[in-house]
Amino acid sequence: MKHDWPTVPLGEVIRPVERGETPRAGKLYQQLGVRLWGEGAYARESIDGSQTRYPQFTRVEADDVVVNKIWARNGSVAVVCEELAGYYVSTEFPTFAPNHDRLDPRWMHWLTKTPDFWQQCDKRARGTSGKNRIRPEQFLRVEIPLPPVTEQRRIVARIEQLAAQIAEARRLRH
Which residues have CB under 8 Å from 73's CB, separation 6+? Predict the structure, then answer.
C-alpha cells in the first residue's frame, strides 16, 4: 500500500533537551541503557556519582528519544517509557523531546525498529575503528515518514494489536 505522507527531518519534530546534572558523590544514579535494533531502553545498574568519569548526566523523561552515539547505526535509539522516567544517561546518549502535536512517541518507537532508520543513522555516523559516532545535529537530519498524528495513532494501534497476537502465538507454541 503506497502512501503520500511527507518525510521530514527529525529536527522538525524533536528538540534537544537539557536536563543536566553534575554527578555528586554519595548520590545514586539509576542508569538507562538502549538496546540495539530498536529493542528499546532498559534499566542498567545504579552508580554512585563518585564512580563516573562523565562530568554530567542527563535525566530522561517519558517520551524522550535517547540515542546511543556509538551504536545508533545499529538501531540503538529508544523512546523512554513511563517506567524509566527519571533515570540517567551519560553524555554519550543525546536526548530529545518530541513535539507531541506532530509526533506520537509510539510512532517514533516503531520507526526505530526499521532498517531504513538504522541505515540513515549509519550513513550519518563518523569515526574510526568501529567507534563511528552520530553527532546530535546529524541525528536530527534523519528523515522519517510523518502522517498526521491521528493516522500515526491509528497505525500504531494496529501494529500493537498485531504484535500482541504474534506474542500470544509464540507463547502458545512454547
Answer: 118, 121, 122, 125, 132, 134
- Could you give the angle at the alpha carbon of 66 between the alpha carbons of 61 and 67, nearest 5°? 170
Locate 37 and state its grid cell: 535494533
Question: Going by C-beta distance under 8 Å and a sequence separation of 6 or more, which residues neighbour residue 64?
Answer: 17, 79, 80, 95, 96, 97, 98
Residue-wise pLDDT tens digits, 35-53: 999 999 999 999 999 999 9
Instruction: State pLDDT tens for residues 140-153.
Output: 999 999 999 999 99
User: Which contacts (CB < 8 Å, 24+ apart) does range 158-167 have?
Assistant: 159/110, 160/106
Phi/psi for 59 (5° steps) reads -85, 130
Taking the mean position of all CA atoms in its chain, how far away is CA 121? 12
How would you list the strands of the sheet with 41-48, edge to edge?
A: 20-21, 57-59, 88-89, 28-34, 41-48
**Contact between residue 88 and residue 63 where contact means Cβ atoms under 8 Å apart:** no
Helices (H) and strands (E) in the chain, counts: 4, 11
Q: Say what the pTM is.
A: 0.91
